[in-house]
Amino acid sequence: MERKILLTPGPATTSDSVKNAQVVPDICPREKEFGEIMNSISLDLVKIAGGDDNYTCILLGGSGTAGMDATISSVINGKVLIINNGAYGQRFVNIAKAYSFDFKEIFFNWNEEIDIKKVEAELEKDKDIKYLVVVHHETTTGILNPVKEIGEIAKKHNCTFIVDTISSFAGIPFNIKEWNIDFMISTSNKCIQGMPGVCFVICNKDKLEKIKDNPKKSFYLNLYTSYDSFRKTKQTPFTPPVQTLYALRKAIDEFLQEGAENRYNRYMENNKILIEGMEKLGFKKALKNLKESRLLTTFWEPEDKNYSFEKMHDLLYKKGFTIYPGKIREKTFRVANIGEIYPQDMSIFIQSMKSILEEMNLKMALSK
Ligand SMILES: *Cc1c(COP(=O)(O)O)cnc(C)c1O
Questions:
Q1: How close is the Cα of 104 to the center of ligand 1, in Å?
Q2: In what order do the strands lie in the sheet with 183-187?
Q3: Which partner from 21, 29, 265, 289 sits 20 to 30 angstroms from 210, CA to CA?
Q4: How far, in Å, from the CA of 64 to the mean position of ligand 1?
């Protein structure tokens, strides 16, 4: 198969073996055999998150946002504080609004670190707040938020702690238990390197039991309905994306084979080559002196009349690389280095970028 490299923060590049894992004989997902596959996926995802028997993993059909939607609509039953320093924090706010939940938002600029003292002051001031929500890796920019420290505050103030780890899970090692996370959301098509179509929520079982009698705000995306169905029958209440789950099974096998540390190190090596190469070409990173994921980098767009993102994108696309536009008001673009890609791919990307800059006649880069 032709190899295309996605330098987008999901879907990410997948291995041929993961792609091929989708080609299976037709099977009804109500079969025991399929229930066993889903069960093994759930158990492994809990383990990868650092959870034990006190945690369970709920698989849902849908993209990452379905997991956010399901978690917010199923768990929240009282006042929630949402930390917002990017488009995905904002998405949580939008979901809370859509369900008319009683929420408070604490806002930070895209180029600001979360001020933990401000978060804590909010919880001290307003004792009605029972839930705290944050994004781990804010894929809007690549900033990495201090989830461990926020988790300590959540615990101290008895808040149920909900974290979007959609673009960091399996990319950056962490431990759900040590970080006091009660509900952790992620998806099949980012650092775990599977196909899009499945999201999953890893839940603290005690906290999950407590949502049992919450008013059902969503009929389809309800965590307890899914949990209860699977627990009793090893079946999902609605048709799951069967082939995507086979691919996810394979992607997890490949993750376990590579190992969490090795995957992280590979991504870091990819990032090192990316940053060094891009800076040599004259590009500048948008985030300065902030803690970054190093899974995705935001670059300023060149100030040159010959520059256009579309043109750069299209020329790169012809060479087999896909990049992403920026997600903030300022003029930026983004390059991710997750997925089934290796340092050599990043070197080829830098070479391709260099020749494209020459083709576009961009002086800023050529002078370096
Ligand atoms: C990708 C992503 C999502 C979900 O996006 P979908 O398009 O629904 O898959 C949510 N949060 C973060 C931080 C993400 O990176």
A1: 22
A2: 55-61, 198-204, 183-187, 160-164, 129-135, 79-84, 103-107
A3: 29
A4: 5
